[in-house]
Amino acid sequence: MRSLLRKVWRPLVDELSGDRIGSLWGIRRAARRPAGRILLAAHMDSIGMLVTRIQDGFLFFAEIGGIDARVLPGALVQVHATRAGGSTPLAGVITSRPPHVQTADEKRKVTPVHELMVDLGLSAAQTASRVQIGDLIVFAQPPVRLGSDLLMAPALDNRASIAALTGCLAQLRGHALQWDVIAAATVQEEEGFAGAYSSAFAAHPDAAIAIDVTFGRQAGPPEWKTFKLGEGPTVSFGPNLHPQMGAALMEVAASNAISCPRDVMPLHSGTDAYAMQVSRAGIPCGLVSIPLRNMHTPVEVVALADVEQAAQLLAKFVLALDRKFRARLKVHA
Fold this sequence. Notes:
alpha+beta, Aminopeptidase, Elongation Factor Tu (Ef-tu), domain 3, globular
């Protein structure tokens, strides 16, 4: 993902850089100095798995990042086999025991992750020669268009937001900016926000916005926790987020006819904003989220219109930043 983004972002930014753990930074400089600095962060990592044991050619694994075990049996995967050089991932499937050979008790339960296996279709000797403990496993479900505007694919949490951030950079091209913009594709959000901590510390911004996903509307969950696909990205409010950042985002949305429902987060947001808010002496943070169905499964679903509107909101927000905005973010005693 990082290699792909370097190619895509190179013509959109003035400088490409990054941290020592893998995050990528695309930097657009303001037209004049001194200038404010805003960090726009979307994580490019996704949930996955790690080989823990090899037995008779089958791979046992552990989850990385909170996978929904209910949907794993039968899932298509790729194994990044280091002994095979890693250049061509090995295709596999997570084994599913037929119901005919399950006990009545087993049929009523979700099979724990540590009991599932990956079948590569190789002999025990072939598997042992190519795969070793610690190799990474990712979902390999091909992307599918649903209806007229929906996209189903794995890793849309948070590649959908990476697409929105890239769209923002494209819309800023050719505009003179009053603030520096640091676009960060962060790593390890799913396992502790490492890339957000390092990026926020290095960038030392005056303000930051995390771009992530939120829960898409579907049958079952309460409506106040979910948002309809195709009706725009959300702007969040809660203790993890600066109220003036949220208010400013909503003002920009209203002035540009962008639909933005308000999302309430009474605890921390579970996004890169959690780490960025407490970097250095504290950073005022906002959060823009794209509604997504089937979170943390191989078949996540977003509306492409929401991705496009998120990109537009971010670009319009950056273009509206001026010298007065930093004073708006101050906490007065």
